[in-house]
Predict the structure of non-reducing end alpha-L-arabinofuranosidase.
Amino acid sequence: FTVDASISSGHRIPSTLFGLFFEEINHAGTGGLWAELVQNRGFEAGGLNTPSDIRPWVAVGTETQVLLGTDRSSPFVKNPVALRVAILCDAEDSSSSNQCPHRGVGVSNPGFWGMDIREGATYTVKFWLRSTASLSLSVSFTSADGSQTLAQETVEVDSKTCHTWLNQSLELKATASDHYARLSLTSRNRSVFWLDQVSAMPTDTFKGHGFRKELALMLADLKPGFFRFPGGCFVEGDRLINSFRWRETVGPYEERPGHYGDVWNYWTDDGFGFFEGLQLAEDLGALPIWVFNNGISHQESVPTELIGAYVLDTLDGIEFARGPLNSTWGALRSQMGHPDPFDLRYLAIGNEDCWKPYYRGNYMKFYEAIKAKYPDMQLISNCDGSKSALDHPADLYDYHVYTSANNLFAMRHQFDDTSRYGPKVFVSEYAVTGNDAGRGSFLAGLAEAGFLIGIELNSDVVSLASYAPLFVNNNDRRWNPDAIVFDSWQHYGTPGYWMQQFFKHSNNASLLFSTVQADAATNNVLIMSALRAKNDSTGSDYLVIKAVNYGGTALNLQLVITNMPSSDKIQALDSSMTVLTSGNLMDENSFFQPTKVVPTVSKAETAGPNMRLTLPAFSIMALQLGLS
Ligand code: AHR
Protein backbone atom coordinates (compact mmCIF):
# COMPACT_ATOMS: atom_id res chain seq x y z
CA PHE A 1 0.00 0.00 0.00
CA THR A 2 1.69 3.20 -1.15
CA VAL A 3 0.71 6.61 0.18
CA ASP A 4 1.80 9.86 -1.39
CA ALA A 5 2.11 12.05 1.71
CA SER A 6 2.30 15.37 -0.15
CA ILE A 7 -0.97 17.18 0.58
CA SER A 8 -1.35 18.27 -3.02
CA SER A 9 -1.68 14.61 -4.01
CA GLY A 10 -5.32 14.33 -3.00
CA HIS A 11 -8.14 16.67 -2.06
CA ARG A 12 -9.66 18.29 1.01
CA ILE A 13 -12.41 16.11 2.45
CA PRO A 14 -15.59 18.16 3.05
CA SER A 15 -15.99 19.25 6.68
CA THR A 16 -19.48 17.75 6.46
CA LEU A 17 -18.59 14.34 5.07
CA PHE A 18 -19.55 12.17 8.02
CA GLY A 19 -22.53 13.21 10.09
CA LEU A 20 -25.71 12.00 11.73
CA PHE A 21 -29.25 11.29 10.69
CA PHE A 22 -31.71 11.54 13.54
CA GLU A 23 -35.25 10.27 13.05
CA GLU A 24 -38.11 9.98 15.52
CA ILE A 25 -38.30 6.20 15.09
CA ASN A 26 -38.01 3.46 17.74
CA HIS A 27 -38.71 6.12 20.41
CA ALA A 28 -35.35 7.64 19.49
CA GLY A 29 -36.30 11.09 20.73
CA THR A 30 -39.54 10.70 22.66
CA GLY A 31 -38.53 8.41 25.52
CA GLY A 32 -34.94 8.52 24.31
CA LEU A 33 -32.58 11.34 23.48
CA TRP A 34 -35.14 13.88 24.72
CA ALA A 35 -34.85 13.58 28.50
CA GLU A 36 -38.56 14.14 29.31
CA LEU A 37 -39.52 11.33 31.68
CA VAL A 38 -43.32 11.68 31.49
CA GLN A 39 -45.13 9.96 28.65
CA ASN A 40 -48.30 11.67 27.38
CA ARG A 41 -47.65 14.76 29.49
CA GLY A 42 -50.74 16.63 28.33
CA PHE A 43 -53.21 13.68 28.30
CA GLU A 44 -53.74 14.37 24.58
CA ALA A 45 -52.49 11.07 23.14
CA GLY A 46 -55.88 9.40 23.38
CA GLY A 47 -57.62 12.14 21.42
CA LEU A 48 -60.27 14.66 22.40
CA ASN A 49 -63.06 12.26 23.27
CA THR A 50 -64.26 12.45 26.86
CA PRO A 51 -63.22 10.49 28.74
CA SER A 52 -60.19 9.72 26.58
CA ASP A 53 -57.56 7.04 26.92
CA ILE A 54 -54.84 8.44 29.17
CA ARG A 55 -52.35 5.60 28.88
CA PRO A 56 -49.75 5.04 30.20
CA TRP A 57 -51.09 7.02 33.18
CA VAL A 58 -52.79 4.76 35.73
CA ALA A 59 -54.75 5.29 38.93
CA VAL A 60 -53.02 5.00 42.27
CA GLY A 61 -55.71 3.47 44.50
CA THR A 62 -58.82 1.42 43.93
CA GLU A 63 -61.95 2.46 42.04
CA THR A 64 -63.70 3.33 45.31
CA GLN A 65 -60.79 5.62 46.23
CA VAL A 66 -60.06 7.53 43.04
CA LEU A 67 -61.88 8.37 39.79
CA LEU A 68 -59.94 9.56 36.73
CA GLY A 69 -61.41 11.12 33.60
CA THR A 70 -60.54 13.73 31.03
CA ASP A 71 -62.40 16.84 29.99
CA ARG A 72 -61.63 19.85 27.83
CA SER A 73 -60.91 22.31 30.62
CA SER A 74 -57.19 22.81 29.87
CA PRO A 75 -55.96 26.42 29.86
CA PHE A 76 -54.02 25.64 26.67
CA VAL A 77 -55.87 26.25 23.44
CA LYS A 78 -53.85 23.77 21.39
CA ASN A 79 -54.02 21.14 24.13
CA PRO A 80 -57.63 21.23 25.32
CA VAL A 81 -57.61 17.97 27.29
CA ALA A 82 -56.94 18.00 31.06
CA LEU A 83 -57.16 15.19 33.61
CA ARG A 84 -59.86 15.39 36.27
CA VAL A 85 -58.93 13.54 39.45
CA ALA A 86 -61.62 12.88 42.05
CA ILE A 87 -60.29 11.59 45.37
CA LEU A 88 -63.19 9.64 46.88
CA CYS A 89 -61.54 8.65 50.17
CA ASP A 90 -60.44 10.83 53.07
CA ALA A 91 -57.68 10.21 55.59
CA GLU A 92 -59.27 12.43 58.24
CA ASP A 93 -62.81 11.10 58.04
CA SER A 94 -62.93 8.64 60.94
CA SER A 95 -66.63 7.94 60.39
CA SER A 96 -66.05 6.86 56.83
CA SER A 97 -65.20 3.31 55.95
CA ASN A 98 -63.34 4.69 52.93
CA GLN A 99 -60.21 6.11 54.50
CA CYS A 100 -57.35 7.03 52.15
CA PRO A 101 -54.31 4.81 52.54
CA HIS A 102 -51.23 6.33 54.11
CA ARG A 103 -49.48 6.76 50.76
CA GLY A 104 -52.43 8.64 49.30
CA VAL A 105 -54.28 8.00 46.04
CA GLY A 106 -54.26 9.74 42.69
CA VAL A 107 -52.44 9.10 39.45
CA SER A 108 -49.04 7.91 38.29
CA ASN A 109 -46.98 7.75 35.13
CA PRO A 110 -44.39 5.03 34.43
CA GLY A 111 -42.59 7.13 31.82
CA PHE A 112 -41.19 5.24 28.87
CA TRP A 113 -40.91 1.72 30.24
CA GLY A 114 -39.76 3.14 33.59
CA MET A 115 -38.03 6.31 34.77
CA ASP A 116 -34.37 6.15 35.71
CA ILE A 117 -34.21 7.87 39.10
CA ARG A 118 -30.77 7.97 40.71
CA GLU A 119 -29.90 8.65 44.32
CA GLY A 120 -28.38 12.14 44.71
CA ALA A 121 -29.66 13.41 41.35
CA THR A 122 -32.25 16.19 41.09
CA TYR A 123 -35.28 16.35 38.83
CA THR A 124 -37.45 19.28 37.84
CA VAL A 125 -41.15 18.44 37.97
CA LYS A 126 -43.58 20.93 36.42
CA PHE A 127 -47.32 20.76 36.00
CA TRP A 128 -50.49 22.80 35.95
CA LEU A 129 -53.03 22.35 38.74
CA ARG A 130 -56.55 23.56 39.53
CA SER A 131 -58.87 22.32 42.26
CA THR A 132 -62.29 22.97 43.73
CA ALA A 133 -60.94 23.57 47.27
CA SER A 134 -57.68 23.80 49.16
CA LEU A 135 -55.48 20.84 48.42
CA SER A 136 -52.40 19.09 49.69
CA LEU A 137 -50.81 17.18 46.81
CA SER A 138 -47.85 14.86 47.17
CA VAL A 139 -45.48 14.73 44.19
CA SER A 140 -43.11 11.79 44.33
CA PHE A 141 -40.95 9.38 42.43
CA THR A 142 -41.62 5.88 43.68
CA SER A 143 -40.14 2.49 42.91
CA ALA A 144 -41.82 0.55 40.10
CA ASP A 145 -44.17 -1.26 42.51
CA GLY A 146 -44.91 1.92 44.46
CA SER A 147 -43.57 0.49 47.73
CA GLN A 148 -40.57 2.80 48.10
CA THR A 149 -40.46 6.60 47.90
CA LEU A 150 -37.33 7.78 46.08
CA ALA A 151 -38.01 11.55 46.19
CA GLN A 152 -40.97 13.55 47.44
CA GLU A 153 -42.28 17.11 47.80
CA THR A 154 -45.71 18.46 48.74
CA VAL A 155 -47.69 21.19 46.97
CA GLU A 156 -50.16 23.11 49.12
CA VAL A 157 -52.88 25.09 47.37
CA ASP A 158 -55.08 27.40 49.44
CA SER A 159 -58.77 28.02 48.94
CA LYS A 160 -58.19 31.55 47.55
CA THR A 161 -56.14 30.53 44.51
CA CYS A 162 -57.15 26.94 43.98
CA HIS A 163 -59.89 27.67 41.41
CA THR A 164 -57.51 29.04 38.81
CA TRP A 165 -54.88 27.06 36.92
CA LEU A 166 -51.59 27.34 38.82
CA ASN A 167 -48.19 26.61 37.32
CA GLN A 168 -46.21 24.41 39.71
CA SER A 169 -42.48 23.81 39.54
CA LEU A 170 -40.57 21.66 42.02
CA GLU A 171 -37.06 20.28 42.40
CA LEU A 172 -37.05 16.72 43.68
CA LYS A 173 -33.81 15.26 45.00
CA ALA A 174 -33.67 11.48 45.00
CA THR A 175 -32.58 9.68 48.17
CA ALA A 176 -32.72 6.23 46.57
CA SER A 177 -32.51 4.72 43.06
CA ASP A 178 -34.71 2.72 40.75
CA HIS A 179 -34.19 2.36 36.98
CA TYR A 180 -37.89 1.69 36.48
CA ALA A 181 -39.43 4.31 38.77
CA ARG A 182 -42.71 6.20 38.24
CA LEU A 183 -44.00 9.67 39.00
CA SER A 184 -47.01 9.88 41.31
CA LEU A 185 -49.32 12.78 42.18
CA THR A 186 -51.46 11.81 45.13
CA SER A 187 -53.58 13.23 47.94
CA ARG A 188 -55.19 11.86 51.12
CA ASN A 189 -58.14 14.25 51.25
CA ARG A 190 -61.48 13.99 49.53
CA SER A 191 -61.15 16.50 46.69
CA VAL A 192 -61.51 17.18 43.00
CA PHE A 193 -58.59 18.61 41.04
CA TRP A 194 -57.32 18.83 37.49
CA LEU A 195 -53.83 18.24 36.14
CA ASP A 196 -52.31 19.21 32.83
CA GLN A 197 -48.91 19.32 31.11
CA VAL A 198 -47.03 17.27 33.68
CA SER A 199 -43.30 17.18 33.01
CA ALA A 200 -40.33 15.63 34.80
CA MET A 201 -36.76 16.12 33.60
CA PRO A 202 -33.36 15.40 35.12
CA THR A 203 -31.71 18.76 35.85
CA ASP A 204 -28.44 17.51 34.37
CA THR A 205 -28.86 17.29 30.60
CA PHE A 206 -26.44 17.66 27.66
CA LYS A 207 -25.34 21.32 27.56
CA GLY A 208 -28.40 22.11 29.69
CA HIS A 209 -30.70 21.81 26.69
CA GLY A 210 -32.82 18.82 27.64
CA PHE A 211 -30.99 15.96 25.94
CA ARG A 212 -30.20 12.75 27.79
CA LYS A 213 -26.55 13.20 28.51
CA GLU A 214 -25.00 9.79 27.96
CA LEU A 215 -26.83 9.36 24.64
CA ALA A 216 -25.86 12.81 23.38
CA LEU A 217 -22.23 12.14 24.36
CA MET A 218 -22.25 9.05 22.14
CA LEU A 219 -23.16 11.38 19.27
CA ALA A 220 -20.63 14.07 20.20
CA ASP A 221 -17.93 11.41 20.29
CA LEU A 222 -18.41 10.80 16.56
CA LYS A 223 -17.54 14.45 15.82
CA PRO A 224 -20.40 14.75 13.34
CA GLY A 225 -20.19 17.32 10.56
CA PHE A 226 -23.96 17.58 10.13
CA PHE A 227 -27.21 16.61 11.81
CA ARG A 228 -30.07 15.64 9.47
CA PHE A 229 -33.47 15.66 11.21
CA PRO A 230 -36.31 14.94 12.09
CA GLY A 231 -36.83 12.03 9.57
CA GLY A 232 -37.22 9.99 7.36
CA CYS A 233 -40.70 8.67 7.01
CA PHE A 234 -41.55 10.53 10.22
CA VAL A 235 -41.47 13.75 8.19
CA GLU A 236 -43.80 12.37 5.54
CA GLY A 237 -46.35 10.58 7.71
CA ASP A 238 -48.48 7.80 6.33
CA ARG A 239 -51.23 10.43 6.04
CA LEU A 240 -50.44 14.12 5.75
CA ILE A 241 -52.46 14.89 8.87
CA ASN A 242 -49.84 12.95 10.85
CA SER A 243 -46.75 14.40 9.19
CA PHE A 244 -44.21 16.49 11.11
CA ARG A 245 -45.30 20.15 11.03
CA TRP A 246 -42.47 22.33 12.39
CA ARG A 247 -44.84 25.15 13.45
CA GLU A 248 -46.64 22.86 15.91
CA THR A 249 -43.37 21.93 17.62
CA VAL A 250 -42.04 25.36 18.61
CA GLY A 251 -42.88 27.77 21.42
CA PRO A 252 -43.79 26.82 24.99
CA TYR A 253 -44.14 23.08 25.49
CA GLU A 254 -47.64 23.57 26.86
CA GLU A 255 -48.76 24.97 23.53
CA ARG A 256 -47.37 22.15 21.39
CA PRO A 257 -50.25 19.85 20.47
CA GLY A 258 -48.06 16.80 19.90
CA HIS A 259 -48.93 14.34 17.18
CA TYR A 260 -49.28 10.68 16.36
CA GLY A 261 -46.45 9.49 14.15
CA ASP A 262 -48.43 7.05 12.02
CA VAL A 263 -45.48 5.48 10.21
CA TRP A 264 -43.68 4.31 13.35
CA ASN A 265 -46.93 4.20 15.29
CA TYR A 266 -46.52 6.15 18.48
CA TRP A 267 -47.51 9.45 19.99
CA THR A 268 -44.99 12.20 20.56
CA ASP A 269 -45.54 15.29 22.69
CA ASP A 270 -43.03 17.09 20.41
CA GLY A 271 -40.86 18.28 23.29
CA PHE A 272 -38.05 17.49 20.83
CA GLY A 273 -39.25 19.85 18.15
CA PHE A 274 -37.77 21.96 15.38
CA PHE A 275 -35.98 24.33 17.77
CA GLU A 276 -34.49 21.44 19.76
CA GLY A 277 -33.18 19.79 16.57
CA LEU A 278 -31.45 23.00 15.55
CA GLN A 279 -30.10 23.43 19.08
CA LEU A 280 -28.75 19.90 19.26
CA ALA A 281 -26.98 20.31 15.92
CA GLU A 282 -25.30 23.43 17.27
CA ASP A 283 -24.41 21.72 20.56
CA LEU A 284 -22.78 18.88 18.61
CA GLY A 285 -20.81 21.31 16.45
CA ALA A 286 -22.70 20.03 13.41
CA LEU A 287 -24.57 21.82 10.63
CA PRO A 288 -28.33 21.21 10.79
CA ILE A 289 -30.04 19.69 7.76
CA TRP A 290 -33.77 20.15 7.95
CA VAL A 291 -35.89 17.63 6.04
CA PHE A 292 -39.27 19.26 5.53
CA ASN A 293 -42.56 17.89 4.26
CA ASN A 294 -43.11 18.85 0.63
CA GLY A 295 -46.83 18.12 0.60
CA ILE A 296 -46.27 14.39 0.18
CA SER A 297 -46.97 11.58 2.65
CA HIS A 298 -46.94 7.83 2.06
CA GLN A 299 -50.59 7.86 1.01
CA GLU A 300 -51.26 11.38 -0.26
CA SER A 301 -49.73 14.07 -2.44
CA VAL A 302 -50.81 17.69 -2.52
CA PRO A 303 -51.18 18.75 -6.17
CA THR A 304 -48.68 21.33 -7.31
CA GLU A 305 -51.36 23.96 -7.89
CA LEU A 306 -52.20 23.76 -4.15
CA ILE A 307 -48.66 23.59 -2.79
CA GLY A 308 -48.33 27.36 -2.16
CA ALA A 309 -49.33 27.16 1.51
CA TYR A 310 -46.67 24.50 2.11
CA VAL A 311 -44.06 26.68 0.45
CA LEU A 312 -44.95 29.64 2.68
CA ASP A 313 -44.86 27.36 5.71
CA THR A 314 -41.32 26.28 4.80
CA LEU A 315 -40.20 29.88 4.26
CA ASP A 316 -41.53 30.66 7.74
CA GLY A 317 -39.55 27.71 9.08
CA ILE A 318 -36.36 29.06 7.53
CA GLU A 319 -37.16 32.46 9.02
CA PHE A 320 -37.57 30.77 12.41
CA ALA A 321 -34.13 29.18 12.06
CA ARG A 322 -32.16 32.13 10.73
CA GLY A 323 -34.39 35.19 10.38
CA PRO A 324 -33.58 38.52 12.07
CA LEU A 325 -34.91 39.37 15.52
CA ASN A 326 -37.44 41.79 14.08
CA SER A 327 -39.03 39.08 11.96
CA THR A 328 -42.08 37.21 13.28
CA TRP A 329 -40.41 33.84 13.50
CA GLY A 330 -36.92 35.09 14.33
CA ALA A 331 -38.50 36.83 17.33
CA LEU A 332 -40.03 33.55 18.53
CA ARG A 333 -36.65 31.83 18.20
CA SER A 334 -35.16 34.58 20.33
CA GLN A 335 -37.91 34.21 22.96
CA MET A 336 -37.07 30.53 23.10
CA GLY A 337 -33.51 31.42 24.09
CA HIS A 338 -31.60 31.64 20.81
CA PRO A 339 -31.38 35.24 19.56
CA ASP A 340 -28.57 34.38 17.14
CA PRO A 341 -29.59 32.69 13.92
CA PHE A 342 -28.94 28.97 13.66
CA ASP A 343 -26.48 28.04 10.93
CA LEU A 344 -29.06 26.47 8.63
CA ARG A 345 -27.53 26.00 5.19
CA TYR A 346 -29.05 22.73 3.98
CA LEU A 347 -32.64 21.77 3.31
CA ALA A 348 -33.96 18.47 2.02
CA ILE A 349 -37.12 18.86 -0.03
CA GLY A 350 -39.04 15.79 1.18
CA ASN A 351 -37.90 12.25 1.87
CA GLU A 352 -37.93 9.32 -0.58
CA ASP A 353 -40.60 10.99 -2.68
CA CYS A 354 -38.93 11.23 -6.10
CA TRP A 355 -41.22 8.76 -7.83
CA LYS A 356 -44.46 9.98 -6.22
CA PRO A 357 -47.12 12.10 -7.95
CA TYR A 358 -46.38 15.85 -7.97
CA TYR A 359 -42.82 15.48 -6.60
CA ARG A 360 -41.09 17.36 -9.41
CA GLY A 361 -43.79 20.03 -9.67
CA ASN A 362 -43.81 20.61 -5.93
CA TYR A 363 -40.02 20.45 -5.77
CA MET A 364 -39.65 23.25 -8.30
CA LYS A 365 -42.07 25.49 -6.37
CA PHE A 366 -40.00 25.03 -3.21
CA TYR A 367 -36.72 25.33 -5.07
CA GLU A 368 -37.60 28.61 -6.77
CA ALA A 369 -39.14 30.24 -3.70
CA ILE A 370 -36.28 29.27 -1.39
CA LYS A 371 -33.49 30.21 -3.81
CA ALA A 372 -35.19 33.58 -4.47
CA LYS A 373 -35.10 34.45 -0.77
CA TYR A 374 -32.06 32.46 0.40
CA PRO A 375 -29.74 32.03 -2.61
CA ASP A 376 -27.03 30.42 -0.47
CA MET A 377 -29.30 27.61 0.76
CA GLN A 378 -28.14 24.17 -0.38
CA LEU A 379 -31.18 22.30 -1.64
CA ILE A 380 -31.37 18.52 -1.68
CA SER A 381 -33.47 16.57 -4.16
CA ASN A 382 -34.92 13.13 -3.39
CA CYS A 383 -34.01 11.87 -6.87
CA ASP A 384 -30.90 9.74 -7.42
CA GLY A 385 -28.49 11.44 -9.83
CA SER A 386 -25.61 9.01 -9.36
CA LYS A 387 -26.12 7.12 -12.61
CA SER A 388 -27.81 9.67 -14.84
CA ALA A 389 -28.22 13.43 -14.63
CA LEU A 390 -31.18 14.89 -12.74
CA ASP A 391 -33.91 16.56 -14.80
CA HIS A 392 -34.21 19.41 -12.28
CA PRO A 393 -31.78 21.77 -10.54
CA ALA A 394 -30.35 20.72 -7.17
CA ASP A 395 -27.23 21.31 -5.09
CA LEU A 396 -27.27 17.76 -3.79
CA TYR A 397 -29.33 14.64 -4.16
CA ASP A 398 -30.33 12.07 -1.56
CA TYR A 399 -29.08 8.52 -1.88
CA HIS A 400 -30.44 5.80 0.43
CA VAL A 401 -29.21 2.22 0.60
CA TYR A 402 -30.27 -0.67 2.86
CA THR A 403 -28.95 -3.98 1.61
CA SER A 404 -27.02 -7.16 2.46
CA ALA A 405 -23.41 -7.08 3.68
CA ASN A 406 -21.95 -8.40 0.43
CA ASN A 407 -23.92 -5.90 -1.62
CA LEU A 408 -22.91 -2.95 0.51
CA PHE A 409 -19.26 -3.94 0.53
CA ALA A 410 -19.44 -4.30 -3.27
CA MET A 411 -20.91 -0.79 -3.39
CA ARG A 412 -17.58 0.66 -2.17
CA HIS A 413 -17.08 1.53 -5.84
CA GLN A 414 -20.61 2.92 -6.28
CA PHE A 415 -19.48 6.50 -6.78
CA ASP A 416 -16.23 5.88 -8.68
CA ASP A 417 -17.92 6.72 -11.99
CA THR A 418 -20.40 9.32 -10.80
CA SER A 419 -20.25 12.55 -12.75
CA ARG A 420 -18.07 15.17 -11.06
CA TYR A 421 -19.95 17.99 -12.80
CA GLY A 422 -23.47 17.69 -11.44
CA PRO A 423 -24.89 18.10 -7.94
CA LYS A 424 -23.09 16.46 -5.03
CA VAL A 425 -24.20 13.20 -3.40
CA PHE A 426 -25.74 13.02 0.06
CA VAL A 427 -25.78 9.39 1.21
CA SER A 428 -28.23 10.30 3.92
CA GLU A 429 -29.23 6.76 4.89
CA TYR A 430 -27.10 3.64 4.61
CA ALA A 431 -26.91 0.38 6.57
CA VAL A 432 -26.70 -3.35 6.17
CA THR A 433 -30.13 -4.80 6.93
CA GLY A 434 -31.80 -8.20 6.88
CA ASN A 435 -30.31 -11.54 7.90
CA ASP A 436 -26.72 -10.29 7.70
CA ALA A 437 -27.45 -7.56 10.19
CA GLY A 438 -29.64 -9.09 12.90
CA ARG A 439 -29.87 -6.44 15.58
CA GLY A 440 -26.44 -5.09 14.70
CA SER A 441 -23.88 -7.71 13.69
CA PHE A 442 -20.14 -7.31 13.35
CA LEU A 443 -20.55 -8.37 9.70
CA ALA A 444 -22.86 -5.41 9.09
CA GLY A 445 -20.35 -2.97 10.62
CA LEU A 446 -17.53 -4.49 8.56
CA ALA A 447 -19.35 -4.05 5.25
CA GLU A 448 -20.50 -0.55 6.21
CA ALA A 449 -16.91 0.46 6.97
CA GLY A 450 -15.81 -0.77 3.53
CA PHE A 451 -18.62 1.24 1.94
CA LEU A 452 -17.54 4.34 3.90
CA ILE A 453 -13.91 4.04 2.81
CA GLY A 454 -15.28 4.03 -0.74
CA ILE A 455 -17.19 7.21 0.10
CA GLU A 456 -14.08 8.78 1.58
CA LEU A 457 -12.14 8.01 -1.61
CA ASN A 458 -14.98 9.63 -3.59
CA SER A 459 -15.43 12.60 -1.29
CA ASP A 460 -14.84 15.00 -4.17
CA VAL A 461 -18.39 14.09 -5.26
CA VAL A 462 -19.97 12.65 -2.10
CA SER A 463 -20.29 15.52 0.36
CA LEU A 464 -22.26 13.95 3.20
CA ALA A 465 -23.06 10.50 4.56
CA SER A 466 -25.01 9.22 7.56
CA TYR A 467 -25.98 5.86 9.01
CA ALA A 468 -29.64 5.05 9.70
CA PRO A 469 -31.41 4.64 12.01
CA LEU A 470 -29.39 6.19 14.81
CA PHE A 471 -31.24 5.04 17.94
CA VAL A 472 -33.53 2.32 19.20
CA ASN A 473 -35.28 2.12 22.53
CA ASN A 474 -35.04 -1.60 23.21
CA ASN A 475 -38.70 -1.60 24.28
CA ASP A 476 -39.95 -0.42 20.90
CA ARG A 477 -37.94 -1.90 18.06
CA ARG A 478 -39.52 -0.68 14.84
CA TRP A 479 -36.36 -1.13 12.77
CA ASN A 480 -33.24 -3.29 12.96
CA PRO A 481 -30.38 -2.68 13.20
CA ASP A 482 -29.67 0.72 14.76
CA ALA A 483 -26.45 2.40 15.82
CA ILE A 484 -27.22 2.98 19.51
CA VAL A 485 -29.45 0.82 21.70
CA PHE A 486 -30.86 2.07 25.00
CA ASP A 487 -33.61 1.67 27.54
CA SER A 488 -34.54 3.82 30.54
CA TRP A 489 -31.04 3.61 32.03
CA GLN A 490 -28.48 1.74 29.94
CA HIS A 491 -27.10 1.96 26.42
CA TYR A 492 -24.52 0.51 24.07
CA GLY A 493 -23.23 1.00 20.54
CA THR A 494 -23.71 -1.70 17.91
CA PRO A 495 -20.81 -2.48 15.54
CA GLY A 496 -22.55 -0.02 13.15
CA TYR A 497 -21.83 2.66 15.74
CA TRP A 498 -18.26 1.61 16.47
CA MET A 499 -17.26 1.43 12.81
CA GLN A 500 -18.26 5.11 12.53
CA GLN A 501 -15.62 5.91 15.14
CA PHE A 502 -13.01 5.02 12.50
CA PHE A 503 -14.20 7.97 10.42
CA LYS A 504 -14.19 10.71 13.04
CA HIS A 505 -10.82 12.03 11.83
CA SER A 506 -11.98 12.44 8.26
CA ASN A 507 -14.07 15.63 8.13
CA ASN A 508 -11.93 18.49 6.83
CA ALA A 509 -8.82 16.28 6.57
CA SER A 510 -6.72 16.00 3.40
CA LEU A 511 -7.25 12.80 1.51
CA LEU A 512 -3.88 11.53 0.26
CA PHE A 513 -3.35 9.77 -3.02
CA SER A 514 -2.79 6.08 -2.36
CA THR A 515 -2.57 2.84 -4.32
CA VAL A 516 -3.06 -0.77 -3.36
CA GLN A 517 -0.93 -3.25 -5.30
CA ALA A 518 -2.41 -6.66 -4.75
CA ASP A 519 -3.65 -9.68 -6.65
CA ALA A 520 -7.27 -9.80 -7.77
CA ALA A 521 -8.35 -12.01 -4.87
CA THR A 522 -6.96 -9.57 -2.32
CA ASN A 523 -8.36 -6.58 -4.16
CA ASN A 524 -11.75 -8.22 -3.93
CA VAL A 525 -11.76 -8.09 -0.15
CA LEU A 526 -9.56 -5.09 0.64
CA ILE A 527 -10.16 -1.37 0.58
CA MET A 528 -7.84 1.27 2.02
CA SER A 529 -7.50 5.02 2.31
CA ALA A 530 -5.02 7.50 3.75
CA LEU A 531 -5.51 11.02 5.06
CA ARG A 532 -3.74 13.76 6.92
CA ALA A 533 -5.62 15.48 9.74
CA LYS A 534 -4.94 18.05 12.42
CA ASN A 535 -5.35 17.52 16.15
CA ASP A 536 -7.30 20.63 17.16
CA SER A 537 -6.09 20.60 20.76
CA THR A 538 -2.35 20.08 20.14
CA GLY A 539 -2.21 21.70 16.71
CA SER A 540 -0.05 18.85 15.37
CA ASP A 541 -0.81 16.81 12.27
CA TYR A 542 -1.19 13.06 11.98
CA LEU A 543 -1.78 10.52 9.25
CA VAL A 544 -4.56 7.96 9.34
CA ILE A 545 -4.31 4.83 7.20
CA LYS A 546 -7.56 2.89 7.19
CA ALA A 547 -8.31 -0.57 5.85
CA VAL A 548 -11.14 -3.05 5.76
CA ASN A 549 -10.26 -6.68 5.23
CA TYR A 550 -13.55 -8.29 4.20
CA GLY A 551 -11.94 -11.70 3.68
CA GLY A 552 -11.41 -14.67 5.97
CA THR A 553 -7.60 -14.65 5.69
CA ALA A 554 -5.20 -12.31 7.45
CA LEU A 555 -3.41 -10.02 4.99
CA ASN A 556 0.23 -9.00 5.25
CA LEU A 557 0.85 -5.57 3.82
CA GLN A 558 3.87 -3.46 3.16
CA LEU A 559 3.06 0.18 3.86
CA VAL A 560 5.22 2.66 1.97
CA ILE A 561 4.84 6.39 2.57
CA THR A 562 6.46 8.54 -0.09
CA ASN A 563 6.91 12.28 -0.60
CA MET A 564 6.72 13.01 3.10
CA PRO A 565 7.34 16.77 3.57
CA SER A 566 10.88 17.20 4.94
CA SER A 567 9.51 19.01 8.00
CA ASP A 568 7.53 15.91 9.08
CA LYS A 569 8.78 12.92 11.01
CA ILE A 570 6.62 9.97 12.08
CA GLN A 571 6.58 9.72 15.86
CA ALA A 572 6.33 6.04 16.77
CA LEU A 573 5.59 6.93 20.39
CA ASP A 574 2.68 9.04 19.28
CA SER A 575 1.23 6.39 16.96
CA SER A 576 -1.45 3.81 17.51
CA MET A 577 -3.31 1.00 15.85
CA THR A 578 -7.09 0.58 16.30
CA VAL A 579 -8.72 -2.66 15.22
CA LEU A 580 -12.33 -3.85 15.21
CA THR A 581 -12.74 -7.57 14.69
CA SER A 582 -14.68 -10.40 16.26
CA GLY A 583 -14.58 -14.18 16.57
CA ASN A 584 -17.89 -14.64 14.77
CA LEU A 585 -19.27 -12.49 11.96
CA MET A 586 -22.72 -12.49 13.56
CA ASP A 587 -21.47 -11.33 16.97
CA GLU A 588 -23.53 -8.51 18.46
CA ASN A 589 -23.33 -6.31 21.54
CA SER A 590 -26.13 -6.41 24.09
CA PHE A 591 -27.04 -5.03 27.51
CA PHE A 592 -25.37 -8.14 28.95
CA GLN A 593 -22.24 -7.82 26.81
CA PRO A 594 -22.17 -4.18 25.72
CA THR A 595 -18.50 -4.29 24.74
CA LYS A 596 -18.32 -7.68 23.05
CA VAL A 597 -17.54 -6.03 19.69
CA VAL A 598 -15.66 -2.78 20.24
CA PRO A 599 -12.38 -1.46 18.83
CA THR A 600 -9.13 -2.20 20.62
CA VAL A 601 -6.28 0.31 20.59
CA SER A 602 -2.61 -0.63 20.84
CA LYS A 603 0.68 1.23 20.44
CA ALA A 604 2.28 1.21 17.00
CA GLU A 605 5.88 1.06 18.15
CA THR A 606 7.29 0.03 14.79
CA ALA A 607 5.57 2.92 13.01
CA GLY A 608 7.60 4.42 10.19
CA PRO A 609 7.45 5.39 6.53
CA ASN A 610 8.10 1.80 5.52
CA MET A 611 6.50 -0.81 7.71
CA ARG A 612 4.81 -4.16 7.67
CA LEU A 613 1.21 -4.47 8.73
CA THR A 614 -0.98 -7.49 9.36
CA LEU A 615 -4.70 -7.04 8.84
CA PRO A 616 -6.56 -9.75 10.74
CA ALA A 617 -9.20 -11.70 8.81
CA PHE A 618 -12.51 -9.81 8.76
CA SER A 619 -11.29 -6.59 10.37
CA ILE A 620 -11.42 -2.82 10.28
CA MET A 621 -8.09 -1.16 11.00
CA ALA A 622 -6.94 2.43 11.52
CA LEU A 623 -3.24 3.19 11.87
CA GLN A 624 -2.74 6.65 13.32
CA LEU A 625 0.77 8.04 12.79
CA GLY A 626 1.74 11.07 14.85
CA LEU A 627 3.85 13.68 13.04
CA SER A 628 6.20 16.29 14.38
O1 AHR B 1 -34.26 4.78 8.41
C1 AHR B 1 -35.53 4.22 8.42
C2 AHR B 1 -36.38 4.65 7.21
O2 AHR B 1 -35.79 4.18 6.05
C3 AHR B 1 -36.50 6.12 7.00
O3 AHR B 1 -37.54 6.67 7.73
C4 AHR B 1 -36.78 6.24 5.54
O4 AHR B 1 -36.28 7.42 4.99
C5 AHR B 1 -36.17 4.99 4.96
O5 AHR B 1 -37.08 4.31 4.19
